[in-house]
Amino acid sequence: MIRVNGMYYLYYGGGLYSAGLPVKPCTIGLATSQDGIHWTRANRGQPIISPAMHRNPGSYGSGQPTVSFHDGFFYMMYTDTTGAASVGKGSAQYVLRSKDPAFQTRVQELTATGFKSRTATNHTTYRFAPYISADMQYSDSLDSWIVAHSDGNDAKLSFFAPDLSERTFSDVNMPRHVVEGPGLVSRPDRHSVAPTAGHCGVVPVDIINATARPGAPTSLRRQGLDISAGQTCASMAPGKVAGIFDGYALHAPKMPLAFITGGQRLQSASAAPIQDLTKNFIATTSEVFHRIPYGASLSPGAKVIHVTGWPAAFLLDHNTKWPVSATRIVQHNKSSITRISKNRYDSYRTGPPLHAVW
User: Could you write out the DSSP letters of every residue in 63-103?
Assistant: First the structure.
């Protein structure tokens, strides 16, 4: 599952089995939700990814999707035992990307020469990796994808460039018997979690995986380690520091509380509206706080503008409107809503949207 711009996307695999054997191969579906409780199947309830059916007829099919959001694209890594480049009984991971979370329009597929528009000719002809079960996330600190996988016994971490064209660091072994998984602990957008110490030099990586199979994978275990990023917040570009803490609230000595979003910090004199935006608070230094570009200050009672059919928005610094997804954010800031014309609403610059968490 992934959360992007206030929407939850649940990617899942489903097939039809009888006596443990596939009657209908697994396909990948998608359901969406605004609150994580009430869900609607996307794509009219039809699969968004189906098996390529190039080889291994009667095998598992396509499934085990892991989806991350990076630089405006949804990236999906998934298994397809029937893919043209699958080996043995179907070991292979394929990668797609699209700005469409349902992967129905303008889909690009990772090929031997980079991402290309997906066609019937190039589909599943390039195997990203010969894994069966794997997970991935993007690390802003390392500027790399982290892929967790198993060699059939221990868990491993592999690192790849942003375009997935090459490896960026040596593999890291995490000795632990793995029978299914492993899965990476990630932010809602499937990036690496921020270090709780509030600095940029460490990437905390935790995996969860099944360690026994008495008929079905069971006995979940967690293990983790810290990876050195080889840099400090001071040596990183401000936008990179903002990316590391995106979606978090930072509190530093003698500084106002700040919510990090859209590469900026939104400062607030009150904790109430910030608690509507995130449940993740990290203590940091004033140096790290100021390294993140200033966006705006949210004062109690700040003006809120609204036009029918459009989201209400705080009108903050430099007459920039910051749209809000839930009126409770407005209420908790003790603000009142002023109705204005659509022309006037459109005349204000738009800042990052503020989505409530549930």
Answer: EEEEEEEETTEEEEEEEETTSTT-BTTTB-EEEEEESSTTS
Parallel/antiparallel/unpaired status of strands 313-316 and 320-323: antiparallel
Separation of alpha carbons 206 and 183, rounded Å: 8
Residue 277 · residue 356 · CB < 8 Å: yes
Cα–Cα dist 223/173, whole Å: 12
Q: pLDDT digits over 65-97, tens only? A: 999 999 999 999 999 999 999 988 778 999 999
Over residues 220-246, the pLDDT tens digits come to 889 999 999 999 999 999 999 999 999
Domains of the chain: 2-228 (2.115.10.20), 238-350 (no CATH)
Q: Where are the alpha helices (DSSP H) in the chain?
A: 238-244, 272-277, 286-291, 327-332, 342-347
- What is the model's pTM? 0.94
- The structure tokens listed for 253 are 């000595």
